[in-house]
Amino acid sequence: MGLLTAAAIATVSAGGAVVAAPVILGVVGFGSAGIAASSYAAAWMSSAAIANGGGVAAGSLFAVLQSAGMAGLSTAATAAVAGTGGTVGGLVAAVLI
């Protein structure tokens, strides 16, 4: 029963991570219309722009999250989030079981 339970927890964790990712992006301020005013993302963007001389570096973590917030997760990002969620869920299950 232990292995089957761990596999079930990992599967649910993978799905939960994929569902939660867009919600979490929105909560921190990465929305479909851009960065929300007075949000964590706005503060991060401001500090990143100051550090980079007025702009946010292309390809930075901030830029990737902004893209995901505006356009949604790509297939590769969805797979990465699911894989990470499943791995974390599997590790938690292994520790608890």
Strand segment tally: 2
**Spans of 5+ residues with little confidence (pLDDT < 50)?**
none
| First-residue to last-residue Cα separation | 10 Å
Strand ordering within the main sheet = 1-2
Question: How many structural domains in the coordinates?
Answer: 1
Major sheet: size, sense and barrel closure? 2 strands, antiparallel
Continuous helix count:
4
- SSE topology string: HEEHHH
Shape field: elongated
Q: What is the alpha-carbon Rg in Å?
A: 17 Å
**Class per helix and strand makeup:** mainly alpha
Percentage of β-strand residues: under 5%
Q: Helix fraction?
A: over 70%
Could you outline the blueprint of secondary structure elements for this entry?
Layout lengths: L1 H27 L1 E2 L2 E2 L4 H12 L9 H11 L3 H22 L1
Helix pairs in contact: 1-4
Keywords: Membrane, Transmembrane, Transmembrane helix
Pfam families: Ifi-6-16
Protein name: Interferon alpha-inducible 27 2A
